[in-house]
Amino acid sequence: MTEETHLIEWNSIKTAIAQCDDIKLISKMNYSIEAIQKWAKQSRQSLETQNEIAEYRLRLNRKQGEWIEANIPEEGSRGLIQEHLQATIFSRLSLADVGIDRNDSPKFRLLARIPEEKFEAYIQTTKENRNEITTIDACRLVDKAHVSYATGESEWYTPPAYIDAARQAMGSIDVDPASSDKANEIVKATTYYTPAHEGRTKVWVGNVWLNPPYTQPLVSNFCELLVQKYQAGEIAQACVLVNNATETGFYQRMLQYCAAVCFIKGRVKFIDEKGVESGAPLQGQTILYFGQQKDKFAHAFNRFGVILYAVC
Predict the structure, then answer these.
(1) Structure confidence at residue 43 as a pLDDT band (50, 70, 90)
(2) Beta-strand (E) ranges in the chain?
(3) Which of 71, 16, 19, 41 is nearest to 245 (CA)?
(4) How does the average pLDDT of the chain come out, rounded?
(5) Confidence (pLDDT) at 11
(6) What is the pLDDT at residue 218?
(7) Which residues 6+ apart lie within 8 Å of 201 measured at CB?
């Protein structure tokens, strides 16, 4: 391909990136950018041009990582067969289905876990210092692994506004079964359980706030247990913040017994330990309400998105 052809292709890809949310198309564009990036290096294009291409590729890879984080349990990356089994069991696409190389998955996960503020600062500083933008340097911005307790032992926490609304809807938060010491500074549950306590084995009473681990099978186990406890009358009310996974068995079961659902507009911007908005999953979130006060729930949560009542 000629230089002019490469530049025309690059300009068309830049336009498409800004408008693209389709994971399969993102993966295809990534491979195209990889080829253009090799051409830029081999033809000794200016550092500005090479960094522009590298930046766009990093942004695409972050999008891929966000999709992986939201849809592929981390243990699924250990083997292709296990990954396909999980994809089948939980009715989700596998990495291969969306055109992502399994060997790239850990790298993309790391890129997705970089707090947005750190990522943007790295891009800007690298350009200003006339250094090369690289995936390796970007991945070093991740201080520690992101674990899947979004209200638990993780660098990501639920924004206080959602917790305040849950307390307003239910009157109190008596139990958070998937939490941590740091997370409970925000949730302020009377009783909370960390992964070390194994909240699934403990007693839940009163009003429950649940943001379960987002990996399988934990998310299914926590949500199924909440339904069981609600049916048995062990808990009075509950608010569950979880991905909008309407195609899954555990989500369908919650829909059968909840009183209302808030379909959150946009995506929840989880916060880091300093209270900075740092993580927004690729998949949207919902809050399901269990209890007899669905009007109070709707009043508390309607600012976040559309409220739908369940037909009992």
Answers:
(1) confident
(2) 175-176, 191-192, 206-210, 235-243, 260-264, 270-271, 277-279, 285-290, 305-309
(3) 71
(4) 81
(5) 62
(6) 84
(7) none
Q: How many residues does the chain have?
A: 312
Please name the helix (run of DSSP H) or strand (run of DSSP E) that holds residue 24, with its range, or none: helix 23-42
Enter the tokens of residue 237: 């009310």
HSE, side-chain direction, 13 A CA sphere, residue 10: 23
pLDDT, tens only, 275-298: 666 555 557 899 999 999 999 999
Judged against a pLDDT cut of 80, whether residue 138 lies above it is answered with yes
Domain 160-309 carries which CATH code?
Answer: 3.40.50
The span from the first CA to the last CA of the chain, in angstroms, equals: 63
C-beta of residue 261 within 8 angstroms of C-beta of residue 307: yes
Distance CA 231, CA 208 (A): 14
Structure tokens at 180: 């941590």
Q: Which two tokens stand for residue 239?
A: 């608010």
Q: Is the per-residue pLDDT at 74 higher than 70?
A: no
Bridging pattern class, strands 277-279 and 270-271: antiparallel
DSSP string computed for 135-184: HHHHHTT--SPPPS-TTSSSS-B--HHHHHHHHHHHS---EESS--TTTH
Beta bridge partners of 239: 209, 289
CB-based contact 41:51 (threshold 8 Å): no
Q: Where is pLDDT greater, at 254 or 214?
A: 254
Count CA atoms within 13 Å of residue 307 on its CB side. 16
Other CB atoms within 10 A of residue 303 CB: 10
Domain ranges of the chain: 3-139, 160-309
